[in-house]
Amino acid sequence: MVDNEDKARIIKEEQNSKSAYLKKDLETSESSDQVTSHNHFIDAFQENYWLYLIFQYIGAVLLIILAFGIYSFLTAQFGPGLPTYILFYPAVIIVSLLWGFGPGLVATVTSLSVADIWILPPQGQLSIASTTDLVGLILFLTFGILISAVAELYHRNRIKAVAYDKENSLREARKEKEFLANILEHSSQPFAIGFPDGRLGLFNHAFEELTGYTKQELNTIDWSDALTPVEWREKESQKLDELHRTGQPVRYEKEYVRKDGSRVPIELFVDINMAADGNPEFYYSFISDITKRQKDEADLKRQAALLDVSYEAIFSWEYDDGIISWNVGAEKLYGFSNEEAIGHVSHDLLKTNFPIEFKDFLKILKKNGNWAGELIHTTRDGRLIVVESRQQLIKDFSGKLIVIETNRDITQRKKMEQLLKDSEEKYRTILDNLQDAYIQADSNGIITMVSPSAASMYNYDSPNKMIGNYIKNLYKNQLDRDDLLENLEKLGNVEDYESVALRKDGTTFDVSLNSQFLYDNEGQIQGTEVFVRDITERKNAEKALRVSEQRISDMIESISDYIYAIDSDWNFIFVNETAANDVGYESSELLGKNIWSAVDKVVGTELETNFREAMDKREIKLFDWETVYTDSYKEFTVYPSAEGITVYGKDITKRKKAEKQLKIENERLETILETNPSAVIIVEADGNISYINQRAKDIYGINITGMDLSTAIAKVKAKKIDGSEYSVGDGPTGRALKGQMVRNEEMILEQPDGTVIPILGSAAPIYNLENQIISAVVIFDDITQIKQEEWRKQKMLEKEQQLTEELSATNEELQATTEELKTSNEDLILAQNSLMEMVTKLKTSNKELEQFAYVASHDLQEPLRMVASFTQLLERRYKNHLDDDANDYIDFIVEGAQRMKDLIDDLLAFSRLNTEVHKFEPILVEVALDDVSFNLKSSIEENNATITYDPLPTINGDPSQIRQLFQNLISNAIKFHGDTPPKIHVSAQELDDECIFGVTDNGIGINQNHQEQIFSIFKRLHTRKDYEGTGIGLAICKRIVERHGGKIWVESEEGNGSTFYFTISNNQIVNSSNGLY
After folding, report:
1. CATH class held by domain 310-418
2. Are 407 and 375 in contact (CB under 8 A)?
3. Fewest Cβ atoms closer than 10 Å to its Cβ: which of 662, 693, 765, 890?
4. How far is CA 176 from CA 12, 271, 552, 771, in A?
5. pTM beyond cutoff 0.70
6. Is the CATH code 2.20.25.420 the one for domain 559-586+605-653+891-1065?
7. 436-534 adopts what CATH topology?
8. Which pLDDT tens digit goes with each residue over 713-739?
9. Could you read off the pLDDT of 355-381 as tens digits, one per residue?
10. Domains 187-291 and 559-586+605-653+891-1065 in one fold
């Protein structure tokens, strides 16, 4: 049996065993963990065992008193009746489990005493009053002894198990120590334990070899004195102080002095084991010989120095950290200094653009150990550069992954490659679109490359069909190929070599060749390239030109006009026979001679002056000249050039004589006209008055020479004899300019002073030799006296006739009065009945029209809307379930329904023109046009249309109908436009009794045969496929114009636009916008 002292001793040993050889805690079993809290509690009292025992027994008594207190509280609250030992049972169980048999037994006895004195009767004395209470007491005592004994057995078994586990653990620890010691002894890395006083403790064989001392010698030396050189002792002291202060292992480099006096560089990893008093107990060190590493580092430094003189950017970075080296090449390439770069993550510093995701890049690098490719970096000054990068993954001496990155700037090369690529693409594009043929052949004359134009030119289906053939087979005469190569060898390249080529189908054509050799990088000839131009047309043109030149030469020689050419030295270089004969020479005799020497008679004349001016000023001269060597006139045209002048002349003697005679005749005619008693006026075809004689000036009272006809009419108005005005172009002058003869037409003339005189006028057109009207002559006389005499005679005859008629009519009137009264009464009754019948018909007609409008707007449109809606619903719902034909049928239904709706809308609008009556009101036509432009905005913008208008008057009318009128005409002008954007102009001309509006466009025009019928309802000149519409728009326009007291017509020429004119009655015109009327 193990007592409490044994338990404390075992626990103490367990605690002491926690300081292992390498400060490694020994792990205990799961069972020892379960009693950990108990052991810790014992630890608190293991220094005074008896105090711990007293605590156990006092705790047992206190727990029983606590149970009694709870029992008393419950009895006070709920009354008597609780079982006596209900709270003492668990208290005894807890004490027994915690502290074993002794405290459990004390807890049992204490519970019995408390129950007997304070719970069981008689209370207050230690006695039992009833057998039942006695039995209960005995049972409780038996239970307490039994549970205490069981708990004690449990505790003893657990202590034995823990002791056994500890023994096993200590055995395992000893084995582990022996194993570790064996590993250390045979390890290739030196290991040693040193004490603060300089003695060496444990060390292995590798340590002996490193220092050169034997084991016996090392056990007798002071490690800090014998092994550590003087210059390293201060550093080592600092590192050991750091170890004492922080308790963390330290790593540092120094040297050992070997037994033979040589030195070896080492790196130490030192940790400390502290004694219970807090002082260092010993140091244990792992030593590494770093001789090779230092040599490698020196090599690395030398390599780094070499890297710094490299033109390439070379730097290294830790696999998961920043840059650790940065050479001069990197500084030059990127602009970052070594200090600026070290420590930064390379792809953040350089803003690296990887060709793949960075995480994928790292995976490839780690898997393959290297990576090569192109990256895009950003330099310090913000420039983007392309680098050719090679990256190698290595491990340093400590096992860290290091990436060595070598980058070469290839930005310029990439630009050149891009330029080359662009150039090649451009070359390929040019080659593909080349009109001339391009052919390459190797040194054996076999075709290796051709342009598409070459295949087309030689009648091959594709360029590939030409490749592989011999180039000489493309020549009709294969000797031409040999001759071409011979010229190439002599000249290096051949231009404009003409030959006859042979197509695949055997036909020939003329070609011009440009050829040169192709060389490789060593300058060796690899073949030839040829550009081929088809000059068949040029050859034909040259042939035709030669024929034409010969014809021209023959013609020049045969014509009667003078033609000659003179060079800049005034020598004849060409002269035809007519010109040579005129000055007494043959043409061959003048060639090469100086004009001023050969024809000295012209020196100092107007001819020399004009020739020299033409030569000096380089300007064409046209002049007439009376020759000094013959009695004749010549007309010369002189054409200058850099080489000299070309002279074209002809004999105009007859024309000059005719002009003189014509001048005499004109003077004679003018005299006749000026003395003529009739007024004579000549008006040119453009309306300008070119002549008016004195008599006309006297009658008009002003001189209208030089005026245009409209201005003259405004100043002196000619009207019909009844006082009404002529329409535009309908007067005698206008009709004459149209080719009509006007004879003895009576008119009245309003002079500027208001005087009105009657005149008798005639007019006739004047034609030129081409039978074209060039002017009109108007002749009229003042017939005031004749009219006065006629009026006097007419009045006398009328008065005589009136008297006779009055006498004979008196009786007839008396007889007819009664009859007329009867007839008038009957006529009035019939007229009234007819009027009532007409009113009834009109009412019926209006009612029918209203019913039609209702049907059109409701009964007809509603089914159409249903057709269109349900058809569109079908399209949306079954769009992907129908074939193309079904989709087309749906489109036809929707389009037809829409056309029917448009037709009904137009019919409705047409019918409402008579059924809807709106009060006429003043309309600003320009404002109405602005509204129309707004309504047609999308159509105007879509067709890039332009709408202009002159100042327009204000009229009385129906505003909506006037807007509808202009909108229909302008929308038609936009719809029926030609190839150029639509241009529409609206004009207005105010007359005495009406205003004429015009809508002019530059569209496709209307055939004259159709200009009447287009105003009929449903009349279309084009198919719906060509132009949309219902054919009612112009009928609506006509109905609106007629409702406003006017008429509408069109003037058009097919292909040259149209002008739609319509009039508004004068009683609809309010005032003109310019205030002149």
Report:
1. alpha beta
2. yes
3. 662
4. 22, 20, 127, 138
5. no
6. no
7. Beta-Lactamase (3.30.450)
8. 777 878 888 888 888 778 888 898 888
9. 999 889 989 988 999 999 999 999 999
10. no
